[in-house]
Amino acid sequence: MRCKSALTRIDAARTGELPEAESTELRDHLRSCPSCDDSRRDLEGLAKLARSLRTRRLLESVHDRFGSFEWEGLTIFVAFSPRGIREITSRASTTEEFLERWTARHPGSTLEEVSLPAEIRAAIESVLEGADPGEFEIDLSGLTDFEVDVLSAIRKIPRGEVRPYRWVAAAVGRPKAIRAVGNVMARNPIPLLLPCHRVVPNGGGIGNYGWGPEMKRRLLSAEGAPVEELDRLEREGVRFIGSRTTRIFCFPTCKDARRIRRENAAFFRDEAAAAKAGYRACARCNPTGSFGLPRSRQGLGTRD
Fold it and tell me: Residues with catalytic annotation?
């Protein structure tokens, strides 16, 4: 069999259309002809590339989609792509208004209205009811690295707990970018699932929220956060709670802090006061925001 004849028969052999006798002759030729064997690999590589390009074009042709649902008088719009959820908002009262807002933020982008997938709606309703939404995919394409880092950091704040803006800034390695963190919270495209409602002012209290302060209080209360206690501590100028038995201080919503008996609790206005009294920072909630520092510089310790 000549080389040219062998190469023209490769596809037919791969699909099983070549007679057995010719298939045997082709295999024998490829084993003994290095040049044809190299050409065969080149052809297979081109075929894989073509399949990859077809898949990529198919994905690129899929427009972002959106759907909506009603919840206690709110119309909640959700935009999503093949990669995950892109936006959740209740700031639009009609589909037209939502699309106008979307186009203003994503010029040249189009959205196709569809029925909202049940799993997306279930995840959002779970958060609204204070439950764990489970696993879900998000699409943060178009955001800056800093925005992605901040939104990833707040995703790690436990349900029923809060962290101040400066803690988030420290968590992403930008301890002085407190105002920038606040701006990211205000523009969070996926509230509820990326829990910006768990981020509070550095001075204490609950603070503002894009869906309104009452919604923030409701979400935190549903998760088990002691909202009224946070209000009281803010009025008293208390930011940290320590245990007289372990000599460790925490954020007030830390699970360890909430196990402290009232008679064993110590209250501190700031970190300096806690340190002066001989207290160490909790290793769990990390109230000093000493991310990535050696233990000797964090002042952290294990519980006795």
Answer: 196
